Amino acid sequence: MRYTYNCNDGLNTDKSTNHIQAMSYKKMLKILPSKYPVGTIVNISYTNKKDNLIIKDVKVSSND
Q1: Would you give per-residue pLDDT tens digits along the chain (64 residues)?
Q2: 5: which residues sit within 8 A by CB, 6+ positions away?
Q3: pTM (2 decimals)?
Q4: Shortest CA distance to 8 belongs to which of 51, 58, 47, 49?
Q5: E-assigned strands of the chain?
Q6: pLDDT in the model for residue 4
Q7: Residue 51 falls in which region: left (phi positive, over 0), alpha (psi -120 to 50) or beta
Q8: Whole-number Å distance between alpha carbons of 18 and 44
């Protein structure tokens, strides 16, 4: 996969961090509901193709 996204749900434990591999940010968003309950706010960090660190907060919603 092209990118590795580090997802943290706010709990400061090692088990709360998931490493999701996906080809794009949009495809990673479709994977989130299978990893976290709907309504959870998740902190996502990744490095883009220009080697800039990107950090975003996303609220998990259903894929519908």
Answers
A1: 789 999 998 766 566 788 999 999 999 999 999 988 899 899 999 999 999 999 999 999 987 5
A2: 19, 20, 21, 22, 25, 28, 44, 45, 46
A3: 0.82
A4: 58
A5: 3-8, 17-22, 41-47, 53-59
A6: 95
A7: left
A8: 10
Residue-level pLDDT at 32: 92
CA 58 – CA 44 distance, rounded (Å): 7
Angle at 55 between CA 14 and CA 61, to 5 degrees: 80
What are the structural domain ranges in the chain? 3-59
Token duo for residue 24 = 């794009």
